[in-house]
Amino acid sequence: MFLAIRELSSSKLKYILVGVILTAILFLLFFMNGLASGLSNADSSSIKNLPADFVMMNETADGNLTKSEIDEGKTQKIYEQIDVNHSTPLTITMSSIKSDGQLTDVVYFALNPHHNTMPNVMEGKPVNEISNNEVIVDSSIKNQGYDLHDTFYDENLGVEFKIVGFFENQTLNHLPVVYTSISHWKERELRNHDKNNAILYYGEQVELQGYDVLTVEETVNAIPGYSETQGSLLMMITFLFIISAFISTVFFYVITIQKSNQFGVLKAIGANTRFIAKGIIMQVVLITFISFGFSLISISGMTQLLPAEMPFELSISLILLTGLLFLILNIVGSLLSVYRIAKVDALEAIGRVD
Questions:
Q1: Are residues 16 and 106 in the same domain?
Q2: Does the pLDDT at position 265 exceed 80?
Q3: Strand pairing of 195-196 and 171-172?
């Protein structure tokens, strides 16, 4: 530790520049991870948070909920194979709502609100207490000026709804999801010819001819374009980690080469390779931690400037995972410098000292 701190204090400008570069790399890593997580949630958070273990849909839909259709008559036959008390039909409808002349695109999830384990609300009524034209809406709709107890009119359906609650992380294809009672949709004949998109249920996975039974995770991955988008972002993040590891390795290796004669002198006066190697690794750890702190401050400030509509989400677990992986890669990269130190010959180094 003493050697690391002494080295950092004696070459401040050099290590400040290294720290600035590592801070910029970490900032970019945080931004890319936050963007990937935000896009993932904006695309699929409502599916990830479905109140179910399994989702049953028509096999011709290939896992695409919006393409699946299950007749009401067939729904009753499906209920004979699963626990009715822990299941609910789901009807998905995309539409536009209007309030004070402003149009907003939304996605309706019509289901049985008394179904067990509904998503928790952050404000207003619980989902299992809604009735008639009452709805629970994703909180992102507040950005459009909506608030609790506001009403909106859907011209496509010809129905007025009242907002009685808000919940978080309920979006589909970047649109806010509206939870509504399927019994109200039956009464108002809002569904398309008594067809549901899927059956949600808790319990064991069953096999029925003509139907696909998918887990919630499989349903998310079946969303058109979801896997491709996340795969592209993951590849970018992976290459960014590799590039960052390469850059930090080169920086510390070049600094080690420049100080080879000094390390040789240390060896000549009795310092062993392990002592010097610990000093090098501690330098890497200290600079990485300092860069981590400054990059966190930078990314926190940037998130305050981002527009509310931008899908960006950076959780504490994601921050810690990114920082830990970055630290490990830097330590692994520093082993090349350690190898260089081990090869330094004390007598030869002394001969090069001015």
A1: no
A2: no
A3: unpaired
